[in-house]
Every structure is written in structure tokens, then in C-alpha cells.
Amino acid sequence: MKLRLLLLIVICLAFCTGANAYYKQYTMTQGLISNTIYHSFRDSKGYMWFCSDKGVSKFDGKTFRHYSTLQGLTDNDVFNLYEDGLGRIWLFTFYGAPCYLKNDTVFTADNDPYLRRLPTISYPMCMLAENDTTVYIGYSTGQVFEIKGAKTRELVPAHLHNEVYAIYRSGNFIKIRSANALLTIEDDKVIDYKKTSLARGFKCGDKIIVTYPGRVELYQEHQLVFSANVNGLRLENVISCYSDDAGYVFIGTGKGLIILNYHTGKEMKLFVNNVVTSVDKDICGNYWVSTIGNGVYCLNKEFAQVRFVKEIDNDRLMRTHLGQIFLVSDSHLYNFHKNVLNEVKKSFHSSYEPLFLNDSLLIIASGTKTYFYNRYTKKQDIKNYYVKALYNFQSDRFLFITANFINNLVLSGGTLIYKDTTASRSRILTGAYAKKDGKVYLLSFNALYQFDPQNNECIKVDTIRGQPSSLFYINDKVIVSMNNQTALIYDPGKHFARTRVSTDHVVVNELYSLKNGDCLVRSNDGYYLWLLDTRNSKQVLRKIDLFKSSDVCMYPYEDSVLCKADNILCAFPQRLLYERYGSPILFVKKLILNHKEYSADKPIITKYGINSNVSIQLGSLYFNNSDNYFQYCVAKNGIVGEWIRSDGSNINIWLSDFGSYTIQLRVVTENGITSPVKTISIQLRPPFYNTLWFISAIVATVFIVIFAVVFLVFKKRRERLRNELHYMQLEHKAINSLLNPHFVFNAINNIQNLVNENEREQANEYLAMLSKLIRQNIENLRFDFISLEKELILVRNYVMLQNLRFNENVKLQINSSVSASNILIPPLLIHTFVENAIVHGYRSNIADFTIQIDLSISTDDYLVINIIDNGVGYNENNKNVQADKTSMGIEFTRKRLERLSDFYNVIHSVRINKRAEPGECGTEVVIILYSKFRAFVTVA
Questions:
Q1: N or C: which end of the chain has fewer CB within 10 A?
Q2: What are the E-state strand segments in 196-338?
Q3: Which residues contact 372 (CB under 8 A, 6 or more apart)?
Q4: Residue 256: which residues within 8 A CB-CB, separation 6 or more?
Q5: What is the structure's pLDDT at 625?
Q6: Is residue 870 a contact partner of residue 846, using CB atoms and an 8 Å limit?
Q7: Residue 601 has what pLDDT?
Q8: Is the CB of residue 836 less than 8 Å from the CB of residue 887?
């Protein structure tokens, strides 16, 4: 994560004494247009502007862009600027001729007729821009002009005779504050005028700051929220005031910057003896202080958290293996302890390296020698070896590691006594002390060892292939840094299980444990934050860019970080290493699609075809002292692609097909801080013949036409079938409207015989049955379908009448497993075949002539009718069979069933077979018919 410029703000002595402070200074050397800066200003996009005696500088956090009379300004002396609701940057010059900047273009009265209506008065002081583009401008002469549309007029010229410092809106009123008066205007008329004490007022957002001699007041929403006495504050010295939501009030004076905190009541004085002209805040929270002659200073938002320690020059700051911090300055040795520098030794050679310090002993290494200095006796013991690492196990016991030996020493009565010396198996590069278990780890060129000081045992932990550079013991882990930009992490608690991790293109030179368990890394590429995680094979280091200076040194100490940079030694809380000081801001300067410019803030809908080119020109803002780059991601129809890094600020994207595209843009700093994502929506509409609705309409039309054709064909066929069926039913009714005349003649003769034989009751019974049969036949023929029950009643009556003729020799047997009342069949369907069985199958010589009717329902809802007789049998080749009514009835029944099946889209079957089984004679008729005609027709 990228950090802001942290140490731009440390006070050399105490803030209240007015001593100099540490800051980041921008002058002409860093690209500023001039060292005389009248005003600092941040516009709505986040750019910083600096007004000077040589024009205006626009700063994006990395580069300056200048505007002067060479670019068209009316005057180079620009002392103030304002931004209106249309994004125009108005420049106030000493000459007074009006001009403004928009989209990096200068507009004056020469190229904008609107400006010709404004007066040319020297030294404009303040401005109020309304949402309806109405502009109020106050001048040093006390005049206030209103520019509304095409009209320009002067307001209240007679009331104000001093400089106008602030114009602001309060509800429906316009407030105008001068050095000694406050006016209230409503509907362009003065409704209130108050004389005030001599003061200067300044507007900062929704706050008003008023300064009096020796006093400052802060108003918000017309309520006094802060008031403080400031010793020595003189109105003639007050140049500017600024306040933000952090609780600070900045007063720029001719003798420095006064900072008041209205939460804590503290007062600070910075930049003493500088003429401070203004203060403003950038998008990252840093404060920009402009001065006359010294350019601008960037003061970090956390300036109150940074504590000055000492001003140093080419001094050396060092940290031992035991975490002790020393400073060598002006031939003096200092030790940093309890946040204070304590002098340890005078006349200290700057090339020496301190190794250890306690109340009685100072150990120093130099070249091939090590010095043991007794602070009580002032005696010095010199050993002819160079100590690579030193560890203090107890108050009087030490372990020294040299290139070839491991020495145990005891301090007794101010004298060092060598206890044990262990020769190393190979040349030692460095060591690391594990305070948790009292072990010391040693690193050679090709191996890692564990040394136990208690019994002087040294065991080999692992063979290392490659080029190891450093060894550390952090968070109960042994870490070996490699020169190939990786690190080996060993876990002693898991039998030295090893994990190799990437260190992201850097070589770790030093690794320091922070209070929260993370690590501060000093590498060949500066300082990084590293969260050790052995679960991941790749580690992401977060770079810390605190300074532009390459001479930076940082050491953790307790919960702080001691830092040396740019000749300042200071301390700040470790938590500031994690602060995310704002994100960079992304701007889309220009968007061109197929040679036509569009706005990036609105969805783009175009009828351009395939192979469209999108050209995007980007810009960014970031004031945290780091480089950044752009990334883009293209999604089509909801399918998101990967983020792609752009080589520069211009991005060209090729859209090869129609569809809805979403282009996401962001700017990323070199340590991974990303800006909010900017989304551009582009919809490439295809020609109408290639659109989904057109294709759908064509497909739908084709389907409708096909459906209409099929429907008409089917309807016509159905109508034809209906007509045929109707014709056949009429024909069938005509044929069956009368019973067989021979049958009727025989029935009447039989009834007559019964009458002659005086069998009146039986004759009446048969006569009634005949009339019922005739009436039932006529009734059934009125309908296309009758119930199976009615058909069986008709058949029974018919057989009973036939028995009058055949002396009860015809037997009828009906076997049914169906609900006869719920099943519909065509009328006379069974009767026709029963009649055919009697007419063609019965002979007088056949005893027990039987007609058997079996009724059942199949599994697929079809009615199966079996009509079996034991007569002479069916022979379709018999020429003697006359084409009588029964034969014609069978043929019509076949045709009628065929038409019914076609019309209702069901199947049927009629089979007439001679019984061929041994010992059997007669005829079998099998009729298969759909059993659910009731769902299609209605029957009275």
C-alpha cells in the first residue's frame, strides 16, 4: 500500500516556541512556476493550483503545468482564483482584467463576449458563483459587481469603503463582509447594513473565519463554534485563513503560519519568518502552504503525530541484533532509549559500530577488532576478531559470533571471562537469536545450523542451495533471505518444515518485527511492509514511500518508528505505516469512438457496425509521492475479462462485434493502491436486419404462416370429413330408419297367430315389444352417438322378437365388465352384427343357437366388442349371400367407423372371422372402438 509523504512536518523544538519544522518544499527547482506564491487552491477535480507573480501552475501530484501571458492570460500577476459551478477557473490578477480557464484553454474578453461585460478593476478580492451561473465579485475598493446573464451591475457602491473579503449565501440572502461592515442582500437589494469592529473575514466551504486583533472566531451555519485568543495577532499581518473538518484553523500571516486546534485548544507556529499567503488541502489530506519567496510546503495530515528528535547532517543511525538503536553524530555516540537520545560516549570514531550497551558495558566493533569498554572502570579490552552478531542471554552472559567461532563470555566484576569456544564447521555469514527457546541460528554459504548455548551443540538444520544473504528469527519462524528474490521460512515447532516464498522482485537485507506481528523490510529497493504467511507460495510486499530522498533509514522501536531522512531524525507511530492516505483519482480527458467524441459520463448508444475503435485519453491525480499506471477491463454482454495494464495514458480498444460493452478503468499506484473504478457503457447496435427482434419477427412470421397453412388444411380436411361423416350418418339413418320388412312381416304374422290361438296376453306383450323396438330404433337414429346401455337394450328386444319366429331357439348371452351407461357408440353398431348373425348364421337344424357378446376396456381406453355365434359361419366368398340390408349395414358401419376415427384422430378396428378352432363353428366379430367419445360430443 502506498503511503503519503509522512515526514513533511516535524517541529524542530516545540511547536509553541515557533521553531522551524520539517516539510516537503516545492520551488522552481522542483518545477514550480515561481517561488513567490500568492495562493494555493484545489479545484473540484482535485488538481492543485498555485498563483504567482509569473502566472499559474497546475499540479497533478507529479508534474506542473504552467499558464502565463504566453498561454493567453491577461496578466502574470495572479494572486487568487475561484471555480464556479461550470468548472471555470477564474483568475484574479492585479491588473484586474477578467479571464478564466476551462479545459486547459484560456478565455479572455478577446474570445468570450461574456467577459467584455465585466469591469476592469485592480485587485479583485473574492467571488461567489451561483448555480444559475450568476457571479458576484468583490474588489479591494469595496465595490461588488453582479453578473447575471447578459446584465452586469454594481451593488451597494456607497456602503463599503474597505476591502471585500467574503461573499457567501445564507439561505435566501447574500452576505457581503468587508473590513468593517456586514451587508445582507435579498432580491438584489440591501436589507441590512451593520458596522462591525475592524476585522478580516474568510470563507472556507460552509465555515466563516473572522480575525480580530489578538483573536480569531470560527462560524459554521451562522453559529460560533470556536473562539480563541492569539497573542501577537495583528490584522495587518493576517493574509489568509483556512479550516477543515479535522479541527484545525490555519492563519497565514506575514510572520509565519499559526495552527489552532479547536478540539484540543493547542496552538502551533510553523514557518516562522515566512510570509504565508494561503493554505489549502489536497485530495490525499495533505496541507499546501504557499509563501512569498520560498514556494509551497506540503504538510502531511498526520503532522501532529510525528515527533522531532534531532536535526542531523551526515550522521549514522544503526540498530544492533538485540534491537538497540545508536546514533553517531559529530564524533559523539548516542543511544535512543525511552524515546530520548542519550549521549553514551564522546570522541567516538564514526567508522566504529556499536554492538551492545548496558549500564556497565559498551561493546564496539571496528574492522578486525572488537572493543569491550567498561563504563565503570573506564577500562578497555580489545579482541582481535570482528563480531558478526552478539546476543545477551543474561545480564552477565554473552554469545559472540564471528566468521569462524562461537564464543561464550561472562562479565564478572567488570572483567570478561571466556567460558567456551566452539569452532564453526563452515564460514558464518550471520546469526539470529531465538529468545523463545534460547537457541541461536547460524547461516553459512550453503547451510542453516541450530546452536544450543547451554551445551555448545551445533546441529545442521538444512542444506541451502543458492546464495543466501540474511538470516532472521521473526514470529517464531526462522527466515533465510536469498539473493534470487525469494525467502526460506522454517518452522522449528514443526520439525523445521520449510516453505519457499517469493519476495516480489526484491532482496531482503534486513527484517524487523513490528508490534502487531508484521514486518518492516529493508531491501535493495527501499522499505516494505510484509505480512508473513507460510500458507501462500507468493508474498505481496507493500512498499513504503515516505520520502523522495534516497538517504532514508527506519528502525522500529517499541510502538514507534525511528526515522532518519533529509537530515532530520524523528519518530512516528507504527500505525502510520498502514495508513491509506486517500486513493488516486482517475479522469477521462477524451473519449473517441469511430472518430467521434463522446462524453464518458453517459451511456453511449451508436449504430456503428462491427470493428469499432475506442480511443480513451486518461489522466490521474495522486499527491502521495509515487508513480502510477492505468488498467482497463472490457466486459461484453456481462462476460467480464481480465484487467490489462496500459503502457501509457492513451488506451485503444478494438470492439470487433455488436453488443453491449462495459469498459472499466482505474489508476493503480506502484504499491497497489487503486482509484475508484470508472465505468464506460457502450452499446453497438447492429442493423435492423441483424437484430434479435427482426430475426424473431421473421421466425415468428414463418411459424404463423406455416401454422395458418396447416390450420387451413386441417380445417378443410376436418370439414370434408365432417361432411362425409354427416352424409354417411344420414345415409345410415335412412337405411336403418325402417326395420327389415321381412322381420317385421314375420313378427306381425307371429303375433297374429298368437291372437288366433287366443294367446292375447302374449300377443299383446309381443306387440308392445315390437312397437317399443320400432320406437327405440327411431329414437336412437336421431343421435350420432348413443350409450352402450341403450344399444344393448335394443339388441335384447330385437332377439326376443326374433324368437317369436324361431320358437325361442336363439339364445343371447352378454358378458360385460364396463359401465355401459358411460360409454358412447354409434347407434345400431352391435345390432347390425347381431342381426347379421341371425339372418346369415341361424339354421333350424342348429340346436341351441347362441349369440355371445363380450364387452371389455383395454389398457389404452379402447372398447373391445366380441360378437360370437355358433351358426353356419362367415364366408365372404359365398355368392349366394344376397346384398340385403344387413350386408349393406355392415359395409356402412365400416365406413362410418373409419370416418369417425379420422375425424376424432383415434383408431378403430372391425374384424369378421370364421371360427376355425377344432370343434367350433360360427362367426366371430371383433370391434375395437375408442371408449371416450363422451369427451367430444354431447348426448341428450
A1: C
A2: 200-204, 207-212, 215-220, 223-229, 238-243, 248-253, 256-261, 267-270, 276-281, 287-291, 296-299, 307-311, 316-319, 325-329, 332-337
A3: 361, 362, 363, 380, 381, 382, 383, 416
A4: 18, 269, 270, 271, 272, 273, 274, 276
A5: 61
A6: yes
A7: 84
A8: yes
- Supply angle C-alpha 357, 361, 363, rounded to 5: 65
Backbone angles phi, psi at 597, to 5 degrees: -85, 140
Question: Nearest 5 degrees, angle CA 776-CA 777-CA 782?
Answer: 95
User: Phi and psi for 773 in degrees, rounded to 5?
Assistant: -65, -45
* Averaged pLDDT, groups of 10, the chain, 940 residues long: 32 31 77 94 91 93 91 90 86 85 89 80 79 78 78 68 78 81 80 79 84 88 86 85 88 91 82 90 88 90 73 82 86 86 85 85 84 81 79 78 81 70 79 86 90 85 89 89 88 89 83 85 84 55 66 84 78 75 76 88 78 87 76 88 89 86 89 84 79 83 89 77 62 52 67 77 79 77 82 87 82 90 86 86 84 90 91 62 58 80 84 79 90 72
Which residues does 329 contact at the CB level (< 8 Å), separation at least 6?
A: 310, 312, 313, 315, 316
Q: Which of 835, 829, 830 is nearest to 900 (CA)?
A: 829
pTM score, whole prediction: 0.55
d(CA 272, CA 520): 36
Instruction: Name the β-bridge partners of 422.
Output: 406
Backbone φ and ψ for 673, nearest 5 degrees, come out as -80, 125
Tell me how far apart the alpha carbons of residues 574 and 587 are, in angstroms, rounded to a whole number: 33
Cell of 500: 519457499
Contact between 219 and 210 under an 8 Å Cβ cutoff? The reply is: yes
Residue with cell 343371447: 812
Reduced to 3 states (helix: H, G, I; strand: E, B; else coil), residue 402 is: coil
Question: Residue 163, Cα to own-chain centre: how many angstroms?
Answer: 52
- Asked if 142 contacts 178 with a C-beta cutoff of 8 angstroms, the reply is yes
Contacts (Cβ under 8 Å, ≥6 apart) of 645: 629, 630, 631
**Per-residue 3-state assignment (H helix, E strand, C coil) for 767-823:** HHHHHHHHHHHHHHCCCCCEEHHHHHHHHHHHHHHHHHHCCCCEEEEEEECCCCCCC
Residue 69: how many CB atoms within 10 A of its CB?
12
CA proximity to 171, closest of 222, 100, 104: 222
Q: How far apart are CA 777 and CA 411, in angstroms?
A: 138
Question: Could you tell me if 570 and 315 are in contact, meaning their C-beta atoms sit under 8 angstroms apart?
Answer: no
- Contact assessment for residue 310 and residue 325, using Cβ atoms and an 8 Å cutoff: no
Distance, in Å, from the CA atom of 881 to the CA atom of 839, rounded to the nearest integer, reads 10
Report yes or no: 252 and 12 within 8 Å, Cβ to Cβ: no
Distance CA 856, CA 865 (A): 7
| Half-sphere exposure (Cβ direction) of 566: Cα atoms closer than 13 Å | 16
- One DSSP character per residue, 179-232 reads SSEEEEEETTEEEEEEE--S-EEEEETTEEEEEETTEEEEEETTEEEEEEE-TT
Amino acid sitting at position 229: N
H, E, C per residue of 690-702: HCHHHHHHHHHHH
CA distance 93 to 113: 19
